[in-house]
Amino acid sequence: MAFLIHKAMKKRTQIIILVLLLIFGLIQFIRPQRNQQTNLSRYDILHKTDTEAIVENSLHHACYDCHSNNTVYPWYASIAPVSWMISKHVKHGKKHLNFSEWILYPKEKQLHKLDEIVEVLQENDMPPAYYTMLHREARLDETSKQHLLNWARELKSKISASVTQQE
Fold first, then answer.
1. For residue range 25-65, what is the model confidence (pLDDT) as tens digits?
2. How far apart are CA 67 and CA 82, in angstroms?
3. Rounded to two decimals, what is the model's pTM?
4. What are phi and psi of 80, to 5 degrees?
5. Residue 160 DSSP SS3
6. 3-state SS class at 145
């Protein structure tokens, strides 16, 4: 009797595994749209600027995957449900700040976003730990972080001066 119960449970387990594999295979056909623009946007924060190479490099490695129109996707981003989570994170990041559309922001919004950039860098909130665990190149050392902070403050100063001149 125990043998029959064991055999029935083994068969049920095999069916469950088969169904799960089938579901996993089918969800691979549900693909989110990719966030990949081929060129640097003419509205990008770095478009036609003399930004230091260390700042550009830091922005591209630590920020642009979630905060621009050009995400560099790792290999595992093609596998559902991971692809869905990454798509959700990118949409959320771009909703808060999109460097690819920076010039389209009103000056007041740009000033506010620069304040937020300074704040999240000072509080070590960005890039998030879950991201830097998988993307070592996104980790900001103190030098890179300080360059980004200086860049954001200088840009804010320039924008503030242009707003003052227009008034």
1. 877 887 888 777 777 788 999 987 889 999 999 999 999 99
2. 19
3. 0.81
4. -75, 145
5. helix
6. helix
